[in-house]
Amino acid sequence: MYFADVGAMCRKVAVYIDRIVKGASPADLPVEEPTKFNLIVNARAAKALGIKIPQELRLRADKVIE
Questions:
Q1: For the whole prediction, is pTM greater than 0.70?
Q2: What are the structural domain ranges in the chain?
Q3: Is 50 left (phi over 0), alpha (psi -120 to 50) or beta?
């Protein structure tokens, strides 16, 4: 599973809320995309499906579910 880092997204939301509370118009704020992503490998599900996960992918993953 490859997805945006939730913690980083929450921090960005806090910055936007701060700007709006201080008087910025939401329409004037730029649209930003996530900059940090996490990779989680579910080895247990892969094994149940008969899929072999390469060791390189396991090493690069932020988290491996055994």
A1: no
A2: 2-65
A3: left
